[in-house]
Prior knowledge:
By secondary structure, the chain is mainly alpha-helical. It has helices at 3-24, 52-85, 99-108. The protein has a domain at 1-27 and 51-88. The chain has 3 helices and no strands. Helix 1 packs antiparallel against helix 2 (52-85). The protein is elongated, with a radius of gyration of 41 Å.
Amino acid sequence: MNITTILILVNVFAAIAIIALVLMQQSKGDMGSAFGGGGSASMFGSKGSANFLTRCTSTMVVVFFVSSLTLAYIYAKRNAAVQEIAPINVEQSSEVPSIDSVVEEQANEVPTIDVPEIESPQVDEVIDESELEAPVAPDAN
């Protein structure tokens, strides 16, 4: 196995262990104690500042951060090596079109739409206006 694969596995297992260890720990009281309203109890509780679970949690946090920083260093070195081998030069690449050439091509290619002619409906009967009767207003008397 590759060193990066091992570090990724260590990183994932450390993250899962941190989550499990934090969820297993007992609460040290209400939130008021963290802001100075806890009375005689200290911020870490009355038992002391560290027990087995808190020491395991802090160990897993250190493992997680060290593996994360090591992975970041490895990938940064790898990307720097790739850039030294094949630097990206946009000016020499002919595959990337410029904005001016795209605008000119689009201006030359104006699409046309073929609209079919629609026949108007034919009226079979012609109504004579003299046959229409005007409505008669009712008598007010």
